Amino acid sequence: MTTNDTLNTVNEFTNKTVERMTSLGELNVRIFEKMSARQMDAMSLYMEHAMRMMKLATESKGYNEFFKGQVEATKELSERVLAEGKTSMQAVSDVRDDYRTWIEKSMADVSADLRKSVPAA
């Protein structure tokens, strides 16, 4: 193997490594956007609950109506938080799968590149 061949191999390997790191960066951005959206959904849920509680506090005709409204609102919030939790767990599972796929593909590419660059014995 000549010096030129070695430099070409190193250059090709470096370019492919940069491509892999770029794809990892893009994957990270997509995951950040997905997880940020999940957090915003959760915050919206709590903001809606707070607004409902404020409205209930100002419009209730008495303590019993206020208390019943609080119980109902809290029950509904709990159910929605549980549903959001399940959705978030699925999102985290998807993230794990995305990373696993990226790693498996990257390692397969690296292995193939290394096999090509090592001369046969």
DSSP strand content:
under 5%
Radius of gyration, in angstroms, nearest whole number: 27 Å
Q: Number of helical runs?
A: 2
Weakly predicted, low-confidence segments: none
- Average pLDDT for all residues: 91
The tally of beta strands, per DSSP, is: 0
- In sequence order, what are the helices and strands, one letter per element? HH
Shape: rod-shaped
Task: Profile the largest sheet.
Answer: none
Helix content: over 70%
**Derived structural class:** mainly alpha
N-to-C CA distance: 13 Å
Name a few traits of the molecule.
single chain, 121 residues, mainly alpha, rod-shaped
Describe the structure.
The chain is an all-alpha fold and 121 residues long. The radius of gyration is 27 Å and the shape is rod-shaped. The model has no long low-confidence stretch (mean pLDDT 91).
How would you concisely characterize the structure shown here?
This protein has 121 residues and is mainly alpha-helical.
Protein topology:
Layout (H helix, E strand, L loop, with lengths): L2 H57 L3 H55 L4
Helix pairs in contact: 1-2
